[in-house]
């Protein structure tokens, strides 16, 4: 398991769960370098050789793959022509599966697929067939010189292609310590809290508050305005788990009652 990239807490109600974050996936795509085609020396994005600092003209730069430390193999356009040209322009569906069989950890990035002129009818036919069968097409597609596994599924009347990680790109997690004994009342109380905090999924209710605050800070800084003092995090207080669960359930129950209470009509 790699080093953790973040640590903090999961918070729901008054319950806090301390956690460490690890990357669950890793990309195994081939990474290419810019090379001086005269002697295959690495060139940076600023078109300067990394060994001498010499500027290299664009027509003297080629892509290359590092086969071992410091040894590169150049990749020419004619090398790509030797690959399966059909696959580079085709989304090849291998199987159809149920969407709920795919764990979300495999999903990577989503793309809309729209029909070309003359392809509207078969496009609509595929959308309708997937909608009515509840199936998802598992496909392979080459995008930017990398073959992706992908899921092809209907979304709001369109076809959506979601690239996926391959099985060997999903890291195996460490096992959680199984010595922590759970009591039935604790489990039931935790389930009650989850139920009390459950709502239909509405993506529009969530926004990126961190991005908004960071943008406001940058704008204030650009105008020379005084910046807010950094907030110091208080050390998390160790609380009794059962007491925190019980109080959280009671609070959420009261909140639910307030939401359900009919509002008094205004006198006309």
Question: Could you explain the architecture of this structure?
Answer:
The chain has six helices and eleven strands. The protein is an alpha+beta fold. Strands 7-9-10-11-8 form a five-stranded antiparallel sheet. Strands 4-3-5-6 form a four-stranded antiparallel sheet. It has a two-stranded antiparallel ribbon with strand order 1-2. A hairpin with a 2-residue loop joins strand 1 and strand 2 (15-21). Helix 4 runs parallel beside helix 6.
Kindly state the mean pLDDT as a whole number?
77
**Spatial separation of the terminal alpha carbons:** 67 Å
One letter per element, helices H and strands E, the order comes to EEEEEEHHEEHEEEHHH
Uncertain ranges:
none
Whole-angstrom Rg: 27 Å
Secondary structure tally: strands:
11
What portion of the residues fall into strands of 2 or more residues?
25-35%
Shape summary: extended
> How many helices does DSSP assign?
6
Counting helices, strands and paired strands, the structural category is alpha+beta
The helix content, as a percent range, equals: 25-40%
The spatial strand order of the largest sheet comes to 7-9-10-11-8
């Amino acid at each position: 398991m790699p080093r953790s990239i973040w640590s903090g807490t999961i918070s729901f109600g008054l319950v806090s769960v301390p956690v460490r974050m690890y990357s669950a996936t890793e990309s195994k795509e081939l990474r290419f370098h810019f090379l001086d085609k005269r002697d295959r020396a690495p060139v940076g994005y600023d078109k300067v050789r990394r060994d001498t600092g010499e500027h290299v003209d664009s027509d003297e730069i080629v892509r290359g793959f590092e086969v071992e430390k410091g040894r590169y193999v150049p990749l020419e356009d004619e090398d790509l022509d030797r690959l399966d040209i059909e696959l580079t322009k085709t989304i090849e569906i291998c199987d159809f599966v149920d969407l709920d069989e795919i764990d979300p950890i495999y999903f990577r990035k989503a793309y809309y697929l729209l029909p070309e002129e003359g392809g509207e009818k078969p496009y609509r036919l595929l959308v309708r067939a997937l909608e009515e069968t509840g199936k998802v097409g598992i496909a392979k597609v080459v995008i930017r010189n990398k073959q992706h596994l992908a899921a092809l599924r209907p979304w709001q009347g369109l076809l959506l292609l979601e690239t996926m990680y391959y099985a060997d790109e999903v890291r195996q997690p460490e096992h959680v310590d199984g010595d922590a004994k759970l009591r039935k009342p604790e489990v039931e109380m935790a389930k009650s809290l989850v139920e009390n905090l459950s709502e239909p999924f509405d993506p529009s209710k969530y926004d990126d508050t961190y991005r908004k605050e960071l943008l406001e800070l940058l704008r204030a800084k650009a105008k020379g305005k005084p910046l807010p003092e950094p907030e110091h995090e208080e050390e998390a207080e160790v609380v009794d788990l059962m007491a925190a669960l019980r109080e959280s359930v009671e609070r959420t129950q009261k909140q639910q009652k307030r939401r359900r209470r009919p509002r008094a009509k205004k006198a006309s």
